[in-house]
Amino acid sequence: MLLNLSIIDLAVVKALDLDLEKGMSVLTGETGAGKSILLTALGLALGDRADSGYVRPNSKRAEVNLEFDLIDAPDARQWLKDNEMDDEQHCLIRRIVNQDGRSKAYINNRPVTLQFLQELSEKLVEIHGQHAHLTLLNSDEQRRLLDAYAKNQPLLDQVNNCYKHWLLAHKELAGLIKASVDQSEREELLRYQLEELQQLDLANFSYAALSEEHGKLANLGQILSTGLAQVELLYEGDPQSVNQMLSHSVSELTHIALYAPELTDICNLLSEAQILTEEAALQLRRFLESQEADPQRMEQLENQIGVVQSLSRKHHVTPDELPDLVGKLETELDSLTHSGERIETLTAETAQLLAQYRQLAAQLSEQRRTTGQKLQQQISAMIKELGMPQGEFLVDISDLESDAPKLNGKDKIEFLVSANPGLPPKPLAKVASGGELSRISLAIQVTTSNDKTTPTLIFDEVDSGIGGGVAEIVGQKLRSLSHNRQVMCVTHLPQVAAQAHHHLYVEKNNKTDITSSQVRLLHDEERVEEIARMLGGVTMTANTLAHAKEMLSTGVKQS
Questions:
Q1: What phi and psi, each to the nearest 5 degrees, are found at residue 500?
Q2: From the DSSP assignment, how many helices (H) and strands (E) are in the chain?
Q3: % residues pLDDT > 90 (the chain)
Q4: Of 337, 366, 398, which residue is a domain's last?
Q5: Structural domain tally of the chain?
Q6: For the whole model, what pTM was predicted?
Q7: Which residue, 282, 307, 337, sits at the end of a domain?
């Protein structure tokens, strides 16, 4: 259960440190005192989206801390253990929102993603908002409530996993069947394109090598004339060749090195240069002698390059990408060639998945029908207690129009109600008035919460639209929920507040420039005064106080 709620600089709350107890706690206060900010803080700490508007004016950041005792939350303990975040029997959740709207979340002092935080929160707290009766009109919400009450989630997961596998196989099969209509024409085109490309000997293909060889043959004349001129300049020209000039320099410097030994190293360097020059000239001559014009090879290269460029333009790729293109075309051709086999395999697979889906969906339908009978009896009984003595609640389960598999099974689930005798049951949205819908919603929430393992339940003004003796019954029902879990309720009704084990009061402080809200636990006398205030009247009379004491005394006796 939730042991402590701590808030720092969140909206109208400057600082709050609130210890919470087992049983039923109510939260009351004047309209506008700030009751909603506590639920906002809880929602934020449990994974709601954050924005900069949460940060109190003139503050750098807002912070919410929650401390839980996990002794009554086995699912949460297992989740923390599975994710290596367990800390014995306690869990600390921390959420920080900065001025720019960015936020950080921590579980047991370890940073986590918002998704992780939400996964854990579902196992710790369940919040029933004041607009739950509007959400209840949605058919998906009605299905979710029935499945949650029936504990259908494991079977529902099997149904949905089977559906997803069937859908993937079905889509692939449909695509292959559609493609097979034009298969022969596509196969013929692919074979022609591959034959065209394979004439290039792509296993040994290099467009760069082709271009290099072509460039060499195309410029052979210039290569020969320039090369011969350089042989003449380097070695064969007499007496102006580089070789002869270096020889002359070595001879002259060697002579004077007899008188200046420091010149010996220079002489050696020039001698090496002469040797290298001679070697270079000889290699250049051998290269030039090996070159000869080859018009036939030149024509062959030009044809090859022309074919390569033509195919590149045709397939919208670069010349170097042609080998990869062949691989892709071969893969597609192979896929088409074997598509018949794949179609047979997928046909058998989809038939098997469809049979499996129908079997699981039938089991799910049976569980829904069985549990639906029990749920409608319990809710019918409760709405009678809540001021609709002739009310009847029905869970209508019928088959969807289409026989094809669907997510969440093959059932159409609709909640129906008959508020008056003799009238056929109709959908909630068409029958119930605002007050009736609030009572029906409350009956559903209380009934479906009875068997849940969530240790903390929070009800935010779910009792709106009711009053009098019905309000007292609502308080009793909420109190009964708290016998094995923690229940928190925000209410404006004294009949509900009187049933609580603990009473929290929210008040606004306008003494400073920035308004702030505070929460405190009321003691016995203070509870009497607050119940009396909620009963109404500007002046608190002795009769009002006596009535408040009687309501509180009745609530204690009934527990």
A1: -75, 155
A2: 20, 15
A3: 34
A4: 337
A5: 2
A6: 0.63
A7: 337
